């Protein structure tokens, strides 16, 4: 058949990953060749081994997924041919390598396990009936998976920025410095003002005059009869009448 499998050209999340890739579903390709009991397989092979692949004569000879490292090819996604008929009721995209559960189970059923290396890979669709292959598509172009970066290859130093970025960063840094200075100045002024008000209140209290209670002056008391004034601490002297002659 002239059909060539391909990765969908439109934007698709996870279209090609480190272990999987997406394929367009080959709708209306096998209608003239398929019967109700026929099945369609996907053949996956390393790009350099696709030319040496030989179609299996029967289902029992289908190369399994677990032999990919040794045989460099396997067959998977066994599907009834009616699923690819017109119009196709199934989704328009197939995911190759999307079954992680069958990888370690050792089953004989067709496994669509994760691809073990970046490849590149080439794929084709093969229509098989009860007596062996009936029709096949062409091989796809090489499909290279994504490579995971080694931690040692990651550059920890970011690349140099452009002059515009440097100017903007400098302006932002200067603006931050000005804002910080303004905030500190405002806080300092408030603190200084509170301290000055406290000092003024203390000084006013210190300069405030203190007046004692009013005490009336002590007026000199008249001497008792018969006393004369004497210096302080000497008491008074009584005046005796002169002795008669």
Automatic annotation (TrEMBL):
GO cellular component: membrane
Residue intervals passing through the bilayer: none
InterPro entries (alphabetical): Uroplakin-3
Native source species: Neopipo cinnamomea
Gene name of the record: Upk3b_1
Entry protein name: UPK3B protein
Entry superkingdom: Eukaryota
């Amino acid at each position: 058949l002239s059909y060539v499998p391909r990765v969908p050209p439109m934007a698709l999340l996870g279209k090609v990953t480190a272990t999987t890739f997406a394929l367009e579903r080959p709708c209306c390709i096998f209608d003239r060749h398929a019967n109700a009991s026929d099945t369609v397989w996907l053949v996956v092979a390393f790009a350099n081994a696709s030319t040496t692949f030989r179609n299996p004569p029967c289902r029992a000879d289908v190369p399994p997924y677990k032999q990919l490292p040794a045989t460099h090819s396997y067959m998977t996604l066994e599907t009834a041919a009616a699923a690819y008929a017109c119009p196709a009721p199934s989704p328009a995209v197939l995911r190759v390598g999307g079954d992680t559960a069958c990888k370690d189970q050792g089953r004989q059923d067709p496994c669509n396990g994760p691809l073990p290396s970046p490849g590149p890979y080439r794929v084709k669709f093969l229509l098989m009936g009860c007596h062996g292959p009936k029709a096949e598509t062409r091989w796809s172009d090489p499909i290279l998976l994504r490579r995971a970066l080694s931690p040692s290859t990651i550059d920890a130093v970011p690349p140099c920025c452009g002059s515009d970025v440097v100017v903007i960063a400098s302006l932002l840094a200067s603006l931050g410095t000005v804002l910080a200075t303004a905030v500190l100045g405002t806080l300092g002024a408030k603190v200084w003002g509170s301290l000055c008000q406290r000092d003024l209140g203390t000084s006013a209290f210190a300069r405030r005059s203190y007046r004692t209670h009013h005490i009336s002056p002590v007026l000199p008391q008249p001497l008792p009869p018969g006393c004369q004034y004497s210096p302080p601490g000497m008491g008074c002297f009584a005046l005796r009448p002169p002795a008669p002659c």
